[in-house]
Amino acid sequence: MTIKGDLLIRGGTIVDPARNFLDKADILIRGDRVVDIPVDEKIQAEKVIEATNCLVLPGLIDYHTHLFHSGTQIGIYPDSALLPQGVTTAVDQGSAGVTNFDSFFKTVVNNSQMRIFAHLHASPAGLSTLTRSLEPIDPNLFDAECARSLFKKYDKELLGLKIRQSKEIVGEWGLAPLKATVQMANTLGCRVVVHTTNPPGEVEELVSLLRSGDVFTHVYQGKGSNIINERGKIRQAVREARTKGVLFDTADGRGHYAFSVAKAAIADGFEPDIISTDIVRGSLYERTVFGLPLIMSKYLNLGISLEKVVKACTSAPARVIGMEGKIGTLAPGAYGDIAVFQLKEIPLHIQDVFGEVLTCDQVFIPQMTVLNGRVVYRSLEF
Predict the structure, then answer these.
(1) How far is the C-alpha of 245 from the C-alpha of 238, rounded, in Å?
(2) With a cut of 70, which residues of the chain have pLDDT below it?
(3) 167: three-class secondary structure by DSSP
(4) Three-class SS state of 7
(5) Where does the chain hold its CATH 2.30.40.10 domain(s)?
(6) Could you report the per-residue pLDDT of 93-140, keeping only the tens digit for each?
(7) At the fourth CATH level, which superfamily is domain 60-321?
């Protein structure tokens, strides 16, 4: 019997943490789905691509991006910026609020090939005032009823709420914006993603407000109170939050990580649930962020295993998004989203905002991206 398909990727090393699979194998796509290849069956495909000496991963999921290019000064164009880096699904984290989410949907989501989800900023105008001024954070401005209407209208795209809790943003409001956001999330039945860099007060108080399923983002940030205690270990309250079900995302950005914090946390067994970029217009292709493959390379060189790095960018965020088994895996029946990489030995130096330098000797180099069974990026050398 001959198994027919449209695209065969042959000879690569499959890394699919959702199935605990790491081995050389072929991937067959028919239409927009992955097709099972029975042992010893012949395969006939319209297009065959050789992936020898390459890693073949599920299409990457960047859980923390800023994509509102038409409504903010920081937004990137998703297809042109992310597809060449192997990212087939992205989550915008609070670029839009209740006053401008309709515009975000019409101009960004509707006009993109890749899958886009979003968290709604609790502040009504989202990040539309950046970089000229910070968003207004007065909890009295938050509009739960408008948010409820949007969650009903965009029930497939909206995943939760976003709030930023830096001292320079909240000022005298302290943790009141986070408390109000969690209260609104309780009424909406959704999760909260909270920006934690330079928090107003101690991490213990902030993390105590989070519920199971909420996301503590910028987990390895080094400004103000952070997840490491004075003994160089993970704070007990942070461990308890993870036990409770709080998720921890890197969302590195240009200034939301410190190698000293990351190294101490990883040494103490506290690895991230999700690895993401917090990419904006100014950090796209810039050495400290560049894109998700570089962030993945950073954590690989910090000592996290290949399988765990890939999981944190595929099956883990897929579960959070609610698309487990459909994206973030190469299992039969999943959408045909594939990212092909070479893991090259390239001496690369990354410096954090505190001046510490990490030398990377293994770097993910994108070779090809497949979205819904169609090749949407391919390197000239591949």
Answers:
(1) 11
(2) none
(3) helix
(4) strand
(5) 2-57+332-378
(6) 999 999 999 999 999 999 999 999 999 999 999 999 998 899 999 999
(7) Metal-dependent hydrolases (3.20.20.140)
